[in-house]
Amino acid sequence: MAPARKEGRKKPSGFKGPGGASAGASRLRVSGAEARGRSRKACRPERRSEYQGLVKHTGGCHCGAVRFEVWASADLHIFDCNCSICKKKQNRHFIVPASRFKLLKGAESITTYTFNTHKAQHTFCKRCGVQSFYSPRSNPGGFGIAPHCLDEGTVRSVVVEEFNGSDWEKAIKEHKTIKSMSKE
Q1: Dist CA 5 CA 156 (whole Å)
Q2: Within its chain, how far is the Cα of 44 from the centroid?
Q3: What domains are defined for the chain?
Q4: What one-character DSSP code corresponds to residue 150?
Q5: What 3-state class would DSSP assign to 153?
Q6: Is residue 131 a contact partner of residue 48, using CB atoms and an 8 Å limit?
Q7: DSSP state of 165
Q8: How far apart, in whole angstroms, are the C-alpha atoms of residue 8 and residue 36?
Q9: Model's pTM, two decimal places?
Q10: What is the pLDDT of residues 139-172, one digit of tens each?
Q11: Is residue 98 a contact partner of residue 29, using CB atoms and an 8 Å limit?
């Protein structure tokens, strides 16, 4: 009988952090199915009692190469940032702690873009170019999830808050809650 394999974090091979290093990549939780090379359907659904009151959303990129799950409220609080990159890519997102995000499929299909401070890790699918999640500068210990990349049926309501990212330093100092959104 083969020894049991520990499920846990896997450093995705195609997920590069600042300077091409995969340092930030180790935060991605990869499903045990992907780590073992089997489909997610072969695994039993995860039941998390600490996520009471939250909904398990699933989503991914356009071509389906990248799939994820995230535990968040059914009532989403979305940030609409106007910093240089968010304005160019129309980035609207909600923020969750890293512990509530799991990459189900596609670690090898993800690439990363960074600039300026290199704190934000702008991840996107190598094949279709869609950014379904990223690690925001405001919450490097969490993930910014694109609500438009969620599968239908789990979102009850959406509130959009404008964030003045064009004056980022001032906006982050003045905002009361954004920096704590990746905390448990």
Answers
A1: 38
A2: 22
A3: 18-37+63-180 (2.170.150.70)
A4: B
A5: coil
A6: no
A7: G
A8: 11
A9: 0.68
A10: 788 999 999 999 999 999 999 988 877 787 787 7
A11: yes
Helical (H) or strand (E) element with 75: strand 75-81
CA 153 – CA 73 distance, rounded (Å):
13
CB neighbours of 40 closer than 8 A, spacing ≥ 6?
Answer: 31, 33, 34, 67, 104, 105
CA atoms within 13 A on the CB side of 62: 8
**What is the model's pLDDT at position 138?**
80
CA distance linking residue 181 with residue 184, whole number of Å? 8
Q: Which residues contact 84 (CB under 8 A, 6 or more apart)?
A: 165, 166
CA atoms within 13 A on the CB side of 11: 8
Query: Three-class SS of residue 104?
Result: strand
In the chain, which residues have pLDDT < 70? 1-50, 179-180, 182-183
Three-state secondary structure call for residue 151: coil
